[in-house]
Amino acid sequence: MVRVIGITHDHKVDTGIPLEKIADATYTWCWVDFNMPTPEEAEKLDTFFRFHPLAIEDCLYVLQRPKIDYYEGYQFLVLHALDPDTLGAAEVNLFIGDKFLVSFHHQKLEGVDEVWEGLVNGAQKRRAWARGPFAVAYMVIDSLVDRYFPCVYAVEDELDELEKRGGHESVELLMNQVFALRGRLLKLRRTIVPMRDLMYRILNSQHIQGEREPRAYFADIHDHLLKLSEMIETDREMTADLRDSYISLNSNRMNGIMKTLTVITTVFMPLTLIAGIYGMNFINMPELNWQYGYYAVLGLMALLGIWMILVFVKRGWFK
């Protein structure tokens, strides 16, 4: 679907404009949104707009790293939106010129739709979009980045919950949950960090600075991305600490089990030796004919076991 809105000279918004009318003198600039376009509609990037083949290739063959390229008469941006369910990245491409904004995406995105509906319904302040296409591009980027926060907060909530119930579940289950959280954080990092780097490039670019779009707007988005990046790194460190703690806890439990088994084995080793000696079937064994031999051997074994346990207690083996 290709949808078009145009901004008139008196800052009114017209919708349902044919694509061929976007160059009409009635409009100061137009926004063309390729929303899940068909292959025939995608061809208009070349046949109608005459965009650079490399930019068109980046649109058609996803998933590209977030970036900004400069072409004659327009800038080309590759952005990433987040799927809140899978935390996968969805690509959004923007072509920004003096009199047009062209957005291209293969999926329906709430961030883009929100800005579109805001312009159509007049929810956005007139002075915001009256500055031109780059102002609306900023609003699209800001809307996409704002949707990163719930995804990061959801992971943080799960991490806090995992810390609270850490001592009430098996270590194996907790370790699986920690590794699952680290995997989700890695997905978030793969999207947010490149977007942060892109905003840094935009802030330091001389091609897009002007009176219509103050640097402060993109600095605000960059600050949001810095905050998100720091939250992700902090959460990754927390999951690493939890992982190490669970590994240490599991090792301590195994050490305790091995210590118990070692003590039991050590106590019964001499007792087994004595039982083995008197279990032999030799004829000339004087103790076999002794009336109290059975009781004496049992007593010796009991005393030997008690003595060894007392020695282990004194040495602190049971602490």
TrEMBL record:
Keywords: Cell membrane, Ion transport, Magnesium, Membrane, Transmembrane, Transmembrane helix, Transport. It is a multi-pass membrane protein. It comes from the Bacteria. It is found in: Cell membrane; Membrane. Coiled coil: none annotated. Its main location: membrane. The chain crosses the membrane at residues 261-280, 292-313. The keyword Magnesium applies. Belongs to the CorA metal ion transporter (MIT) (TC 1.A.35) family. Mediates influx of magnesium ions. This is Magnesium transport protein CorA. It comes from Paenibacillus haidiansis.
